[in-house]
Amino acid sequence: MRRTDHSRPRRRTLMLAAAAVLAVPAVAVPAAVAAEPSSSSASSTEAADLPSGNTAYRTLADYEADMAALVADHPDLVEPITLPYPTTSGRTVRGIEITTNVQANDGKPVFVDVGMHHGNEFPSGELTMEFAIDLVERAAAGDPYVTNLLDRARVVVVPVVNVDGFVRGRRQTDTNTDMNRNYGLGWLPIPTGGAAPWSEPETRNMEWLLSTRQAVVFNTQHTCIQVVLYPPLQLEAGPAQDVARLHTLASEIAAIYGPGYDALPSAEDYETTGEAIDWAYYATRGLSITTETCPDSGVARTYQTQVLDVYDEHREAMFTALETAADPEQYAVIDGKGPKGAVLRITKSFDMYTSPHLQPDGGTRPTSFTTTLESDLTIDNRNGKFEWAVNPSYRPIPAYQEDGVRGFQTGFYEEPWILTCELPDGTVLQTVPVDVDLGETATVDLKECRREFHRARP
């Protein structure tokens, strides 16, 4: 197994994977996962080559205990997230945020990493959780490479997004919906697509997560083929506007996992609709990828081959994703000077569309839905200066439109961020539209806010 020394930053190079994708069926359900409580971490005393020392798959209780322990042991580096919507069966979906001085609302660029859209793809949750533990332990030990990255970027981890499916050891949610066919952009009413776009609380949780954080990179971890995918999901949509950036990141990650891995648009693997990465990219312009890991053809799928044997490569791949999120060329910046203690908020709302489908009135047309992006920052510097890493205000035009699918779009919507400067109680003191593109910086003039803030808070 290849090991990588992350004691200092390494230069990232573009490497293209050349081998064919291996199409293999989903992983079998370990018997231990079907019941929630039994602890895997206590089931073996054998040392394992993982940050946690685990040698078997976690239960839901294990995941929640591991995240709670990271929060309790490292409150300066880790804080908990509770996603807003309980699952169909009433379970809570939990995650964590990791960065230096984690409680500061400081506007760092964000890497969002999630596992188990499909509840029976157990290695996807394990790899996601282990990377979180690895990051925190290395930062706590003073690893300069990791400390530097966490000084510059924030990592959001949700190891199990489909909690009901995981507990039952099956792909779908408890409404028998594949949540990775339920995202609104390009959605179709296929048998596992859900009753309507965004019908599932699990999918709405992910909508909330990515709508409230400026995710420069979003990775959804899966099994079990050897491929790294990026938008679009359908061939008639044509290439994404940022195909070069998407392919560069996917290719680097694929090459790290090994020569059998490929990087390609999701539609070239197989066509589908309503997946996370399409909506995430076309709504936010964040680099959105699906990373699938799997043993080589003919190798048995065990905890050893799917988690232990791949973790060193997975760690390097996720460091590459985090480095990309921290790269100023991959996001935009809003900066300026405002009153210390003020809250800055950026918002934008816009309509998006499903694929055309049969409507209750008998017609065939797309269904519209509104996406609202909203993030905030608190000005903490005594001198009032701030620098906020955001996704560009220029949003790629998707193929899915009000009148149907119009593929091969090359342009961007020029939709400014609407920035408000507010008192902590939400009173708006100034509103400024901000246009800023990839790699650019927009400086905002907040004189009015400074004046009104001091009048309101003498």
Automatic annotation (TrEMBL):
Pfam families: Peptidase_M14. One of its GO terms (cellular component) is extracellular space. Coiled coil: none annotated. GO terms for biological process: proteolysis. Keywords: Hydrolase, Metalloprotease, Protease, Signal, Zinc. One of its GO terms (molecular function) is metallocarboxypeptidase activity. Gene3D superfamilies: Zn peptidases. SMART domains: Zn_pept. Its cofactor is Zn(2+). Residues 56-325 form the Peptidase M14 domain. The keyword Zinc applies. Residues 1-34 form the signal peptide. InterPro entries: Peptidase_M14, TAT_signal. The active site is at E292 (proton donor/acceptor). Belongs to the peptidase M14 family. PANTHER family: PROTEASE FAMILY M14 CARBOXYPEPTIDASE A,B (PTHR11705), SLL0236 PROTEIN (PTHR11705:SF143). This is Peptidase M14 domain-containing protein. It comes from Jiangella ureilytica. The lineage of its organism: Bacteria, Bacillati, Actinomycetota, Actinomycetes, Jiangellales.
